Amino acid sequence: MLPCHGQVRSTRMTDLPLRFGTSEEFAACRRLLQDVGFSEEALLCRYGVGALSALRSRSGAEPDERALGVLTRLFIDGHAATSSQVTSALPPRALDTLRVLGLVAPVRQEPEAWAATVMLYPRAGVILVSDRPTSVDGGPAAPLREIVFSAITENTDRFLDLIPDEPSERVLDLGTGTGVAALIAARSASRVWAVDVTERAAQFAEFNRRLNDVANVTVCQGDLYEPVRELQFDRILIHPPYVPALQQGLIYQDAGLDGQDITRQAVSGLTRHLRPGGRFYCLTLGVDVKDAPFEHTVRQWLQPHDAEFDVVFAPRNTFSVPFMVRSVAVKSTTSLHDAVRLEEEFRRLRIEEFVYGDIVVQRHARPRPAFTVRRQRTQRTGRAELDWLLRWEGELAARGTEWLLDTRPQAAPQVELLVTHRIAGGELTPAAFRLQTAYPFDMEAKAAGWMAVLLARCDGTATGHDHHAFLREQEAIPATVTPRDFARLLGQLASGAFIVIPGFEVPEIRGVEA
């Protein structure tokens, strides 16, 4: 086996509610959950929600004494159930099956009552356990600083949506938590390493690995790349802590004054641990500072080897400095004095706004110029759209734009040309033009009036040379616009997805993501 420093081997911790049973005991638990249909699809259908992350926020649900209802009450809602409720709803010996792995325990104050020691739930085809938010009596269920956070959140939905499913040899999941990303990546990867800085999270991830009987995942405990310091990977995944903090209190949440400490270390480590041709996927919070958008900061973290990497940043949301101060104060019960200090630090760091979204970094398989791109995500932007962007920008970086004169571009179906009219000489006169599209990214660009003619002609029959010659003949463009200039323009239009180049078609529009 390839080395992994800090590999999880122990089978018990004094403060861990779980018990690492035998392979037969884990198999019995899997069969139990399969037999009663404890799946994500069944839960969504039963409770009428669109995503598992919405399940815990439902209200007014009637008591359900069937198997799904009892398991949901125990492991997701965190309520106790009586022995008779469990035995009447679940198959024989189900209580013993759950108890032997430490998943349930008797409630001291209530004879004949049982409660879950952890959350347990299906997620993207695997079964996971994580810490309960509170104990049965309402107190802390785990050491708050090292809590293993639930994977049924909207942020987890977004992170899992980012993870590619193409075959790969080696994958690294940093800050693995429950291990959900590693377990999903294991379906298409030959081998996966799952690393977390806390022993508690590593133990939970190892428990989940055994519960799902996944043999090609190795769980390690240590700080970021330290446990795998001799290894390189085809794919590296991370959903890091990113909440700004004056000092670290919660390991799973806090990440330095600007919230970028963990992301910065993860990106910097790519120069040693990402193979040529490999990609890094990250969902995080970054900052745009004066004269330095976040994507350019990411590139700086890759120095002195940044010329070997492409950087794509696809923001989902932006937040003002005052909003972030208020948000951090709510999350961490920061005092008014500390909130003021935090805002002062943000101003000192010249932060203009916070940006939340996806980073994709790829290392060149062969030498070529690097690119840095930022695109605003929409609800319909996903893996396929990001892959298209990386492929297209990589082609432009490698080949330039003159070859586009021989292609036959088409206007994108979603493109719009917006015209602003102003009063001139007593009449409404076109004064400004903007191109706009909402797929695959939300894009706007200034345009010239003759763009309407070009887009109308882009039907896939004429080449770039043809379009340039026609516009010159009509004197729609200045004589100083050379074919090379026009090729660069075609490249810009294609990068914005305003036109489509054959062989680089934008993916078909999918449904709105959860």
In short:
The chain is an alpha/beta fold and about 525 residues long.
Walkthrough of the structure:
Helix content is 32%, strand content 23%. Among the domains are: 23-117, Arc Repressor Mutant, subunit A (Orthogonal Bundle), CATH 1.10.10; 154-397, Vaccinia Virus protein VP39 (Rossmann fold, 3-Layer(aba) Sandwich), CATH 3.40.50.150. Strand 15 (416-424) and strand 16 form a beta hairpin. The protein is elongated, with a radius of gyration of 27 Å. The strands form 5 sheets. An 8-stranded mixed beta sheet has the order 8-7-6-9-10-12-11-13, sandwiched between helices. Helix 12 (321-332) runs antiparallel to helix 13. It has 514 residues and is of the alpha/beta class. It starts with 22 loop residues before the first helix and ends in a 14-residue tail after the last strand. It has helices at residues 23-35, 40-47, 67-75, 83-89, 94-100, 154-162, 180-185, 199-211, 261-268, 270-273, 294-301, 321-332, 336-348, 383-399, 451-457, 464-473, 483-495, and strands spanning 81-82, 104-106, 113-116, 118-123, 126-131, 168-174, 189-196, 217-221, 233-238, 274-289, 309-319, 351-363, 372-374, 410-411, 416-424, 427-437, 443-447, 499-500. It contains 17 helices and 18 strands.
